[in-house]
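## retry 2 of 3
previous attempt timed out at serialization; input unchanged, resubmitting
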Amino acid sequence: MVKSDCAVSHAMVKEILQCVDQDWLECLEEEKLAFALEGTYYVLAFSLALKGEELPLIELRGIHKHWNQSVSHPKSHVVVALLGRFKNELGESHHLMPVLYKMPRGLKPGKWVERTLQSYSRLNLTSGYMFRTPEGFKMKSKVMEGKFHDRLELIKNSRLDLIAPDLEVVEEYGVSRSFRQGGTSEATNNGVPPLVIELNGRWRKSNQSGASRPNITVREHYTDIGLVLDQLLEFSRFL
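## retry succeeded, writing output
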């Protein structure tokens, strides 16, 4: 049977993150990174409407580069940096995607990203892939699939209003598209203008085409992002 990757709802994501948060609070110090990464994966996948294979493109150095400026902004946010296929003459290949540090409906991307950065900093790691193998290579997106299904099974047993008891979680949900579809659907249902939804996913088109890019630095790219920051943050404001 082909997996349909049903959309996750805001309520489901919030419930999952509450479970991960409890695990993070109760675990040993050496286990905190794994739970921080899990929570970060879910909250960013939903709040930025990313596909499963796009999350492993997130890179630590790019986030650190803009951290202080973005979190101290009047609209406190996190700049998520994804490594793209294209490169300009300076070798830069980041796609910068801002998301609110704390979203009005309760999701907290900033908290989870900050936990992850702090855990990596304790290991003296401030660059490279955020979701990585022990050897430092980019993690396969399917690594998160089993954890995601386990979280959904727990919800299924406790929240009949969110997942029907006869639903086959493994067949209906997957990290490949469930979060992207969920984030996009939630934004559409909450009245986010189509232009804002398209703007949030604009990087995907250029990345898939492998297009070249103007010869600008990452800081100049961040300045360009600032020109449409309000619109970009509008996407996460309604989730």
